[in-house]
Specification:
alpha/beta, single chain, 10 strands, 5-stranded mixed β-sheet, 15% helix, 3 helices, 165 residues
């Protein structure tokens, strides 16, 4: 198995013809990625195409992705370098999140999610890594715009971090 660098996004909320764009610092991270994961609220298909031109991209449907219904799945599980990575947009409330995600994805090593715009990098039930990259474009109550990075190799998570962009 080989090692992979995985850029993780969620909640980009980029609309065609709108003024919001990914920051240049996000592109610097995306250009290094072997794979890109998007935890939902992509909003416009053009961003998926753009990301796919940079690296193989996996994304799930978010609550603001009406135009992508039927294009993106609500959940997805992918094997990356021997690591099972599950994806869902809304993990539900903080309270009970670890147990809820474990029940929904009992065989996943990592669960990527979005929706709250709040970065999360923590260990849940059964050493499952729970990872929300926050948002690179709409920080809401967070101090910074963020995205994530995962290093995966030989069935293990070798790196996990939230990146301020």
């Amino acid at each position: 198995m080989s090692a992979l660098g995985v850029a993780v996004l969620a909640d980009t909320h980029i609309r065609r013809g709108g003024r919001r764009r990914l920051p240049p610092t996000a592109y610097a991270v995306l250009e290094r990625a072997d794979v890109i994961l998007h935890g939902g609220d992509v909003v416009d298909h053009d961003l998926l195409t753009e990301l796919g031109d940079l690296a193989p991209t996996h994304a799930v449907l978010g609550n603001n992705d009406g135009d992508l219904a039927g294009v993106l799945p609500e959940t997805q599980v992918v094997d990356l370098a021997g690591v099972s990575v599950a994806m869902v947009h809304d993990s539900g409330p903080r309270r009970g999140r670890e147990t809820r995600l474990w029940r929904q994805f009992p065989t996943a090593d990592v669960v990527v999610f979005g929706h709250s715009h709040e970065p999360v990098d923590m260990v849940g039930v059964g050493s499952q890594r729970l990872f929300n990259p926050g948002s690179p474009t709409e920080r809401r109550r967070q101090p910074s715009h963020t995205m994530g990075w995962l290093g995966l190799a030989d069935g293990r998570v070798t790196e996990h971090r939230i990146i301020i962009v």
